[in-house]
């Protein structure tokens, strides 16, 4: 069985743990850097990206998280997690992990009163996925190696680049675990490849 | 199909705040300090609760200029307070685009019988509670987030502790009941039956529950997390302390790592004077904010 960690500094951690367990993997809350050695894949949950970045800096998580990604272990970022993964952020000079070749815009759909649910088609996952957008970002630009998985109103809201997966919406807030399952399968594959190469 | 203002979207917003600290601020400068320190949201108001207490008179919704100034200053969510039952204050805040409204007992109630029907609004609401009855009634009215009341503006944690323990004890009691006992429990608590059934089924409240009212030190914040709070509101505690920047950061750290005592010791060192506290028994009954709400 593979082990998936959920970065537990702040945000919707419990919900991700539940959907990982429902998808047949072991789930752990990651609060300390050393725990990264014990997991096969990592979820960066939804929350406040500004707050998460402060906490990532305070606990020296930034470099270890980048290295985790560079070692080709899968990372799945949802909402704030997507912002953490991006190489560029509109109107902002600081970027976070910079692992995915894309430009993202924060709070791109407006404030909380504009938050919404919509049905999406997600390439390779589902064609009737109920996606929950909360003060959500979207992806403005993707690099040539980034695969677009879903769009809403012409804005890119889900993408994949090698071991990295991201959504602007919150799959953890519904009972539909198909995206979590998709990620767990990615983690399984990557673990197999890493074991073979050793 | 696109839906705005659904329960999932409104409650989900509060889920994203979990494990975080929401700070009271009265201007853009304080809002920036709060954001910099790692607050997950700020509450924009005209006076912090301890100053409301001192000023006396009627406390109302903040001047929209203050709320607007704070909204323009930070990218984290901005909350604002409306008086209990004040439909128009709530609608005004909603029209301004605040991210969350606190129907708050810290302000002087506008209605001494009814709370807002919060299901009517697109913007989500947070409400105070001292026990499961209040919690369930507020959920029944459409609150998307709760906070235990404590006694605001006192810097005294005792009431916050009492309310968090009370709510959680009653949830545990409910979860262990057989279904045929729930209706009478609903009658005793004055709580909506369907909401209690749902809580019993899920084993917990269906919305996030933060602690509020009296948090004055990093250790206070960590204590509330240990008692089962999903996060912490800090009102007067931060900007009434000697060194707000340092204090705000320390509270955030203690909330994240509420079981790491060495870290809490470290962040608590040399913080300077915390806000001056008030012993609850010296507060006249009519000045107790926690008794507001029905």
TrEMBL record, chain A:
Give any GO molecular function from the UniProt entry: glutaminase activity
Q: Which domain of life is it from?
A: Bacteria
Looking at the UniProt record for this protein, which Gene Ontology cellular component terms does it annotate, in alphabetical order? cytosol; glutaminase complex
Instruction: Tell me which Pfam families the record gives.
Output: SNO
Q: Name the Enzyme Commission number(s) assigned to this protein.
A: 4.3.3.6, 3.5.1.2
Q: Which InterPro entries match?
A: Class_I_gatase-like, PdxT/SNO, PdxT/SNO_CS
Q: Which GO terms describe its biological process?
A: L-glutamine catabolic process; pyridoxal phosphate biosynthetic process; pyridoxine metabolic process
* Signal peptide annotation: none
**What are the record keywords, sorted?**
Glutamine amidotransferase, Hydrolase, Lyase, Pyridoxal phosphate
The pathway to which it is assigned is: Cofactor biosynthesis; pyridoxal 5'-phosphate biosynthesis
Catalytic residues (UniProt) = 79, 170, 172
Its recorded reaction(s) are:
L-glutamine + H2O = L-glutamate + NH4(+); aldehydo-D-ribose 5-phosphate + D-glyceraldehyde 3-phosphate + L-glutamine = pyridoxal 5'-phosphate + L-glutamate + phosphate + 3 H2O + H(+)
Known function: Catalyzes the hydrolysis of glutamine to glutamate and ammonia as part of the biosynthesis of pyridoxal 5'-phosphate. The resulting ammonia molecule is channeled to the active site of PdxS.
UniProt record similarity statement? Belongs to the glutaminase PdxT/SNO family.
Task: State the NCBIfam families in the record.
Answer: PLP_synth_Pdx2
Q: How does it assemble?
A: In the presence of PdxS, forms a dodecamer of heterodimers. Only shows activity in the heterodimer.
Name the UniProt record assigns to this protein:
Pyridoxal 5'-phosphate synthase subunit PdxT
TrEMBL record, chain B:
Record EC number: 4.3.3.6
Q: Which Pfam families match?
A: SOR_SNZ
At the top level, the lineage of the source is: Bacteria
Presence of keyword Plastid: no
**Any coiled-coil regions, as ranges:** none
Q: Where are the catalytic residues?
A: 81
Residues in domain PdxS/SNZ N-terminal?
A: 7-212
Q: Which InterPro entries match?
A: Aldolase_TIM (IPR013785), PdxS/SNZ (IPR001852), PdxS/SNZ_N (IPR033755), RibuloseP-bd_barrel (IPR011060)
- Which is one GO molecular function term here? pyridoxal 5'-phosphate synthase (glutamine hydrolysing) activity
- Which keywords does this chain's UniProt record carry? Lyase, Pyridoxal phosphate, Schiff base
Q: Which residues bind D-glyceraldehyde 3-phosphate?
A: 165
Instruction: Give the pathway listed in the UniProt entry for this protein.
Output: Cofactor biosynthesis; pyridoxal 5'-phosphate biosynthesis
Protein function:
Catalyzes the formation of pyridoxal 5'-phosphate from ribose 5-phosphate (RBP), glyceraldehyde 3-phosphate (G3P) and ammonia. The ammonia is provided by the PdxT subunit. Can also use ribulose 5-phosphate and dihydroxyacetone phosphate as substrates, resulting from enzyme-catalyzed isomerization of RBP and G3P, respectively.
Question: So what family is this one in?
Answer: Belongs to the PdxS/SNZ family.
Q: Which NCBIfam families match?
A: PRK04180.1, pyridoxal 5'-phosphate synthase lyase subunit PdxS
Protein name, entry field: Pyridoxal 5'-phosphate synthase subunit PdxS
What gene does this protein come from? pdxS
């Amino acid at each position: 069985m593979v082990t998936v960690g959920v970065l537990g500094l702040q945000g919707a951690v419990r919900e991700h743990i539940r959907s990982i367990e429902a998808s047949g993997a072991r789930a752990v809350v990651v609060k300390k850097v050393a725990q990264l050695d014990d997991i096969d894949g990592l979820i960066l949950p939804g929350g406040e990206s500004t707050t998460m970045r402060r906490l990532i800096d305070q606990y020296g998580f930034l470099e270890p998280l980048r290295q985790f990604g560079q070692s080709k272990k899968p990372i799945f970022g949802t909402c704030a997690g997507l912002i953490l993964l991006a190489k560029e952020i509109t109107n902002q000079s600081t970027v976070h992990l910079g692992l995915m070749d894309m430009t993202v815009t924060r709070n791109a759909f407006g404030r909380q009163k504009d938050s919404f649910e919509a049905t999406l088609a997600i390439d390779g996952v589902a064609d009737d996925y109920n996606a929950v957008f909360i003060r959500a970002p979207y992806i403005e630009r993707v690099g040539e190696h980034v695969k677009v998985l879903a769009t809403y109103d012409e804005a890119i809201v889900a993408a994949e680049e090698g071991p990295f997966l991201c959504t602007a919406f919150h799959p953890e807030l519904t009972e539909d675990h198909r995206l979590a399952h998709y990620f767990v399968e990615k983690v399984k594959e990557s673990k197999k490849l890493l074991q073979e190469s050793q | 199909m696109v839906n705005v203002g659904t329960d999932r979207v409104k409650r989900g917003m509060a889920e994203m705040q979990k494990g975080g600290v929401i700070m009271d601020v009265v201007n853009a400068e304080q809002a920036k300090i709060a954001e910099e320190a790692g607050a997950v949201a700020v509450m924009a108001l005209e006076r912090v609760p301890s100053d409301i207490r001192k000023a006396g008179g009627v406390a109302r919704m903040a001047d929209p200029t203050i709320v607007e100034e704070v909204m323009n200053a930070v990218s984290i969510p901005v909350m604002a307070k409306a008086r209990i039952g004040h439909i128009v204050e709530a609608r005004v805040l909603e029209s301004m685009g605040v991210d969350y409204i606190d129907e708050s007992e810290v302000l002087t109630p506008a209605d001494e019988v009814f709370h807002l029907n919060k299901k009517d609004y697109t913007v989500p609401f947070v409400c105070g509670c001292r026990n499961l009855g209040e919690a369930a009634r507020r959920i029944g009215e459409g609150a998307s987030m709760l906070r235990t009341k404590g006694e605001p503006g006192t810097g005294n944690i005792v009431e916050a502790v009492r309310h968090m323990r009370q709510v959680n004890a009653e949830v545990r009691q409910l979860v262990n009941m057989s279904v045929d006992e729930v209706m009478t429990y609903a009658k005793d608590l004055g709580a909506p039956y369907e909401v209690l059934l749902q809580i019993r089924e899920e084993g917990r409240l269906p919305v996030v529950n933060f602690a509020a009212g009296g948090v004055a030190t990093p250790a206070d914040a960590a204590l509330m997390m240990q008692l089962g709070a999903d996060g912490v509101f800090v009102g007067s505690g931060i900007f009434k302390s000697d060194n707000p920047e340092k204090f705000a950061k320390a509270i955030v750290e203690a909330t994240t790592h509420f079981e790491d005592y060495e870290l809490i010791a470290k962040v608590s060192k040399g913080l300077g004077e915390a806000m001056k506290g008030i012993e609850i028994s010296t507060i006249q009954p009519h000045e107790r904010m926690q008794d507001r709400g029905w």
